[in-house]
Amino acid sequence: MLRLESVEKTYGRGANQVQALRGVSLDVMPGEIFGIIGLSGAGKSTLIRCINLLERPQAGRVYIDGVDVTDYKGRALRTMRRHIGMVFQHFNLLTNRTALANVTFPMEIVGIPRLARERRGLELLEFVGLRQKAHRYPAELSGGEKQRVGIARALATEPRILLCDEPTSALDPETTAAFLNLLKDINRRLGLTIVMVTHQMHVVRAVCGRVAVLDQGRVAEMGPVAQVFGAPQTEAARRLVKEAAVGA
Fold this sequence. Notes:
Structural class: alpha/beta
Order of helices and strands: EEEHEEHEHHHEHEHEEHH
């Protein structure tokens, strides 16, 4: 479903240059929940934004469902992004729109008629357990509810891939557990491929089948979650395991 080949991304120039990604290659299979984990500054958020070309790599290739999309622009890029939903760390809801209006916004952009998009929006809010909050504004919602609205919005254009950028960082443990259960349900019921970026090892253990450990812009280790965290082969993975044990 997704393949990255030797992706590189650099910010700044000269002495201020920072290389965020250094030849990252990985594959994500259709229908799996794939985790990308690493400490702060490892390049995780840059990597996930390169998948839908919110950040454009300076080198390497991005393939979606076997198609090279790296150089997509204009209409081709907009069409590609309709098939890739994204859930953000800080929700990114429009504060002057209700929950329903936030969910229907992507459909409005692509020209779906109002009645059709409102019907679909209500179905999606029902799916995430928030139909009764359809006409509430973000300020009237809890953090967990905002994140559920964010999921409903990400599903609005019926994507094949769902990207989650640190989706649980702003949530308490109980709300995090409910959110992760919802993600697993979405994966099971819709067959969505999910890519999740996080620095929280317990999140990866709860929902992911495979994981890539990112360290200073490189993939240090990749494989099944139980294998990578049960018998880490690299210093980067061992450091994550140690930090998780200390924080437990």
